[in-house]
Amino acid sequence: MPREATIPAKTVTEDFLSVEEVIGKYVRTSVGNLMPDGKSIDPNTIQVYLIDGENYTALTSNPNWANADLWHYVDLQRKT
After folding, report:
1. Whole-angstrom Cα distance, residue 37 to residue 16?
2. 25: containing domain
3. How many domains is the chain partitioned into structurally?
4. In this predicted model, what pLDDT tens digit does every residue of 1-58 receive, in sequence order?
5. Residue 8 falls within a domain, yes or no?
6. Is the distance from CB of 27 to CB of 51 less than 8 angstroms?
7. Residue 1 lies in a domain
8. Structural domain includes residue 2
9. Is there a contact between 44 and 57 (Cβ–Cβ < 8 Å)?
10. Is residue 7 part of a domain?
11. DSSP string, 7-71
12. Angstrom distances, CA of residue 60 to CA of 26, 28, 37, 64, 71
């Protein structure tokens, strides 16, 4: 039988593990949560995101885009 439970929010620090761009096509990135040591990534939290189509065009409209710009597109995918 199911039950209701309250799970408190947890604050984590995320970081990019890899960023790969195939110019003119997409950017693929993997993101993971840092372990308590603040240096290593918890392998159980790794997720891969593909930024392509209109989102890729918007991202690369600035030729000097950086990892900080990727967070917006990662968050867009998480909302869907």
Report:
1. 16
2. 14-79
3. 1
4. 889 888 888 888 999 999 999 999 999 999 999 998 888 899 999 999 999 999 999 9
5. no
6. yes
7. no
8. no
9. no
10. no
11. -------EEEEEEEEETTTEEEEEEEEBPTTSSSB-GGG-EEEEEEHHHHHHHTTSTT--HHHHH
12. 10, 13, 34, 8, 14
